[in-house]
Amino acid sequence: MLELVELSKKFKQLYAVKSLNMFVERGEIIGLLGPNGAGKSTAISMISSLAAPTAGDVRFHNKSILKNAGEFREIVGMVPQEIALYTDLTAEENLQFFGRMYRLKGSILKSKIEEILHLVGLTERRKDVVKTFSGGMKRRLNIGVALLHNPELIIMDEPTVGIDPQSRNYILETVKRLNQERDMTVIYTSHYMEEVEFLCDRIYIMDQGNLIASGTNEEIKRILSAEKTILIKGEQLNDQFISSLQEHPLVNRITTADKQVTLMVAKEVSMFAELTKLAEQAGIDLTSVHNKTPTLEDVFLHLTGRALRD
Q1: Which end of the chain is more exposed for a tag (fewer CB within 10 A), N or C?
Q2: What is the DSSP string of 117-155?
Q3: Domains and CATH numbers, the chain
């Protein structure tokens, strides 16, 4: 359905996106994953025809959207990272306004508004002014606006930023349902690993404007087939203990957080006795040491040397 060919965007001397190649099949949910500043939103701006690339092309049904932007915009829905609603209007009035922008009217528009309000769980709040809504409700209405014209493809740029867990789960379940029940194709950007793991058929990982990995969940995790992750927890993981792990020849990578250390080591390595000895030398008590199944977070750390949210 959609193909990105050597897509690049340069601002002065900086490449925000460099030679990005992607494809999206009909009915897929594609995850575009990366930390803030990775180039995800710039890529989405080009995919949605809102920004012209410095080089490369975006092709939809084998037609360049650079030459057919108007035709493309009629069949794509966009959920931007920033809320795009009129806050002095009600939920229903926002849907009426944007529906007319999509050239919907009469009974067709009325029917779509009823359908969308039900879908995003706002039927009871239809007459309420949007500025009285919570962040999660605004996000849900924003998604509803993008669905009014029955798009073939919906692009969602970090739609759960800054909302409560309940609204976040509602949005994730809604996206899953749209895909399963309506065969809707979705491009979903996030810097939350768990969202992408839950939703997506295939994943593209970006960092500093470059595509650094792609594939299904399991295919990406197999990048770490020669390594394993060890999670260490303790009450006071002091500098001596951390330094001894950083300098240890069997440790490939290490990240630290409050009362927790994550190690990447070769799959065949057994570290338990060594960790016990190092903890004793540092004068600390470990509360737990265990191996864990590789996650996308582990892959990202492996590829970039830093955690996703760094």
Answers
A1: C
A2: HHHTT-GGGTTSBGGGS-HHHHHHHHHHHHHTT--SEEE
A3: 2-216 (3.40.50.300), 222-304 (3.30.70.100)
